[in-house]
Amino acid sequence: MTENINHEHTEKTCCTPTRGGRKDTLYQQSDNVTQVRAEIDPVDIPGGTSFLGTDAPQILGDGENPMRRKKLKPFRIGATTVSNKYFAEFVAATGYATEAETFGWSFVFWTDIPAQLRYTKGVDGVEWWRRVDGSNWKDICGPSTQEHCWSPDHPVVHVSHNDALAYARWRGGRLPTEAEWEHAARAGQGDVRFPWGERGPDDTEVFPCNIWQGSFPNQNTCADGWRTTAPARSFEPNAFGLFNMIGNVWEWTSDTYKVKSLKKSVRKSLDSMRGFKVLKGGSFLCHRSYCYRYRIAARSGNSPDSTTTHQGFRVVWDF
Prior knowledge:
Blueprint: E1 2-5, H1 33-40, E2 42-45, E3 48-52, E4 68-72, E5 75-78, H2 84-94, H3 99-103, E6 105-109, E7 120-123, E8 126-133, H4 146-149, H5 161-170, H6 178-186, E9 214-215, E10 219-220, E11 250-256, H7 264-271, E12 277-280, E13 300-302, E14 311-312, E15 316-318
Parallel strand pairs: 1-7, 11-14
Antiparallel strand pairs: 2-5, 3-4, 5-15, 6-8, 7-8, 9-10, 11-12, 12-13
């Protein structure tokens, strides 16, 4: 059984529901930062002039265009998004409670909800997202689902922007800017659409990343081998050695979501998105027919306290 619920923000950005509200919590840096960096295997990214955005936008109103050039300093970035294993270490060391745990619920995609949970609330306009009480980074699909839905090598999900900030600070790092994220994803290839080049994934033959295949949101053929998240270190890395920059999970950045537009409709939607943070990369729920945001220049935004089964993050360190 489902029931629709209205939210403070009526604009539905991509396939990502919004909780609304804000809270900022930061933890102090851990004492073993050097050891942790070695275990996570961060990648050194050269500085220089890079691209941000595109002159061939695919989703008008998202702020993908125009292309800009940005000068960046060298930085280090995680080869993968943060996995459940490493997030569990953070929680064990600090006693941190995620916002999904504090609120007591999070958003779960409708096909992943256990059969015993008969009554859930759907999000108005994107009814495939359900509010599930007791869902969080450990019990991803709902109460008592860790045994079936959780794996140490998969990306941690149900983490808010605030949770990501807390973890990154504890690890001695930070979240990437949007420009840094795109620079790392392009891997020195210039103005390319995807981390591997120009040819996009499809439903039948080309599977370079973990996205949806089939008819969204009702049929996923799982032709790429995964129905939900894949391991954080899976598929072929880009030329810099970074895994899953596209697909798998959306990645939080440090930037505030802004769009320069003269269109009244765009300005109106942005009024409901004040304080939102930029996410990059798309997720396992993206399909070209609905959410063609699994491109380097594509972007989405969500409130800093929102959590879902397809949002994660990776950490950046300064030299």
